[in-house]
Write a structure and sequence with these properties.
Elements (H helix, E strand, L loop, with lengths): L5 E6 L11 E7 L2 E8 L7 H5 L8 H5 L6 H16 L5 H29 L4 H21 L8 E2 L2 E2 L18 H7 L7 H23 L3 H7 L7 H6 L4 H5 L7 H4 L20 H28 L16 H6 L1 H12 L7 E9 L2 E9 L7 E5 L1 H7 L1 H5 L7 H8 L3 H4 L2
Antiparallel strand pairs: 1-2, 2-3, 4-5, 6-7, 7-8
Helix pairs in contact: 3-4, 4-5, 4-12, 4-17, 5-7, 7-12
C-alpha cells in the first residue's frame, strides 16, 4: 500500500472554479479533504463605508455592483430600507414592476449559476444554452434603464420610469440577412411587456432542454448526488437562506413568509429538496426558474390592465420627470438639489430584507438625520454559506470541491463588501 502524506494546498484565488477571488487552504490526506479554511478579502471594495460617505441617492449604483449577477434585487433591499425610514407610499404599479424585475433577475442569476456549475463539473454545452436566454432578459434591463447590467432602476418611492412601449430591434448586417433579421425581430414588434410575455411562452421548454442535458445524466448524478449533504438542523444553525436552506427541506421564502412589494398577490410554490445534497440544490433552482416564470406572467397580466404612476409624488424625495425638469424652473431646482445634496432621513434605524436569488439579502441602515447613512450593514447570504465550507467538504475528495463551491452560488462582490 502507498503511504499517504498529509499536506496543505491552495485552491484559488486563480483557480477557474474558485468563482472569483476565493482562496481555500485545503488540508489533504491523499485526495481526501480533512480541513478547509476559506480566505476572503482579496476583492475588498469597502461598499459599506463608501455608502456612508455618499448621499442616499448616489449609493443605489453601489448595490448593483454587490452581487453583479442579481443587480435589481440588491437595489430593492436598499430602497426598501430607505422607504421604511421615511415612511413613503410606493404606487401599486411600481410594486408590480419591482416584482417583475426581481423575478427576471432571479432567472438571470440561476441561468448564470447553472452554466457555471455545469462547466465546473465538465459540462460545456449548458453554458451556451443558458446565455442564449440570458441575452433576452438582459435586453429587458437595457430597455428600462439603458444599462445591460448595472441598471440603477429602482428609486426610493418607486422606479425610475415606466416600461417602454417599444423594444430595440436588430438591423440587417453582413452576418444576418433581412430574412434572418426579421425572424429575430418577431418578438420585438410590440412593447416590452409583449417581449417578456413571448419569453415566458418559450422559457419552460428551454428549462426542459437544460434538464434533458443534466437531470438524469449519469455523470452529473455521480458528481452531485450525496455530495455536500447539509442536514436541516445544520442549515439553520449555519444561517443558510434561499436555495441552500430549501435544498435541505426547509420551506422558507421571504416572498411567502414575510411578503413585500406585490408578492402577496402572486400564486407560486416554494420548491424544497429532500436530501440536502448538491443534486437537490440543483433541482430546487431549476424549479425556482419555472416558478419565477409563472410570477412574471402574473405581473405582466396585471401591468397590462393597470396603468398609473410608477413613483411617489413627493418632489423632496423623488426626482421630477425629464420633461418637467427642462420646462419648469422649480422642477429644475428640485432636480439639482436632489442629485447634489440629496435628501435627509429622520433619525432612526431600519432593516429591510428581500428574497435574493442566493438567499436573504438584508440592508440595515442607521440614520442620524443627515443626508447620508450614519451606518450601513449588508447581510449577504453568500457570507454565511461560505462559512459552512468545511462542514460540507470534510471527508470528500479534492474533485468534489468545485461542485460544493459552485452549489453555494457565491459571488464575491457581496461577500467582500
Amino acid at each position: 500500500m502507498p503511504e499517504l502524506k498529509e499536506y496543505t494546498i491552495n485552491f484559488g484565488p486563480q483557480h477557474p472554479s474558485a468563482h472569483g477571488v476565493l482562496r481555500l487552504l485545503l488540508d489533504l490526506n491523499g485526495e481526501v479533504i480533512t480541513g478547509v479554511d476559506p480566505h476572503i478579502g482579496l476583492l475588498h471594495r469597502a461598499t459599506e463605508k463608501l455608502v456612508e460617505h455618499k448621499p442616499y441617492m448616489q449609493s443605489i449604483g453601489y448595490m448593483d455592483r454587490l452581487d453583479y449577477v442579481s443587480m435589481m434585487v440588491n437595489e430593492h433591499a436598499y430602497v426598501r430600507a430607505i422607504e421604511q425610514l421615511i415612511d413613503i407610499e410606493v404606487p401599486e404599479r411600481a410594486q408590480y414592476i419591482r416584482v417583475l424585475f426581481d423575478e427576471i433577475t432571479r432567472i438571470l442569476n440561476h441561468l448564470l449559476w447553472l452554466g457555471a456549475h455545469a462547466i465546473d463539473l465538465g459540462a460545456m454545452t449548458v453554458l451556451l444554452y443558458c446565455f442564449r436566454e440570458r441575452e433576452d432578459l438582459v435586453d429587458c434591463y437595457e430597455a428600462v434603464s439603458g444599462a445591460r447590467m448595472h441598471a440603477t432602476y429602482y428609486r426610493p418611492g418607486g422606479v425610475y420610469r415606466d416600461l417602454p412601449d417599444s423594444m430595440p430591434q436588430y438591423k440587417s448586417s453582413v452576418w444576418n440577412n433581412e430574412k434572418r433579421t426579421k425572424q429575430r425581430n418577431a418578438a420585438r414588434e410590440g412593447s416590452l411587456l409583449d417581449f417578456i410575455w413571448d419569453f415566458t411562452e418559450r422559457f419552460p421548454a428551454c428549462v426542459d432542454e437544460y434538464e434533458g442535458l443534466l437531470t438524469h445524466n449519469r455523470i452529473w448524478k455521480q458528481r452531485t448526488v450525496d455530495i455536500g449533504i447539509v442536514s436541516p438542523e445544520d442549515a439553520i444553525s449555519y444561517g443558510f437562506t434561499g436555495p441552500m436552506l430549501r435544498g435541505s427541506g426547509i420551506e422558507w421564502d421571504l416572498r411567502k413568509k414575510q411578503p413585500y412589494a406585490a408578492y402577496h398577490n402572486m400564486d407560486f410554490a416554494i420548491p424544497v429538496g429532500v436530501n440536502g445534497d448538491c443534486y437537490d440544490r440543483y433541482l430546487v433552482r431549476m424549479a425556482e426558474m419555472r416558478e419565477s416564470n409563472k410570477i412574471i406572467r402574473q405581473a405582466v397580466e396585471w401591468l397590462r390592465k393597470n396603468p398609473g404612476p410608477v413613483i411617489a409624488d413627493d418632489k423632496k424625495i423623488c426626482a421630477p420627470t425629464r420633461f418637467d425638469m427642462k420646462s419648469d424652473m422649480e422642477s429644475m431646482i428640485h432636480h439639482f438639489k436632489l442629485f447634489t445634496e440629496g435628501f435627509s432621513l429622520p433619525v432612526g434605524e431600519a432593516y429591510a430584507a428581500v428574497e435574493h436569488p442566493k438567499g436573504e439579502l438584508g440592508v440595515y441602515l442607521v440614520s442620524d438625520g443627515a443626508n447620508k447613512p450614519y451606518r450601513m450593514k449588508i447581510r449577504a447570504s453568500g457570507f454565511a454559506h461560505l462559512a459552512a465550507m468545511e462542514m460540507m467538504t470534510k471527508g470528500h475528495m479534492l474533485a468534489d470541491v468545485p461542485a460544493i463551491i459552485s452549489t453555494l452560488d457565491v459571488v464575491f462582490g457581496e461577500i467582500d463588501r
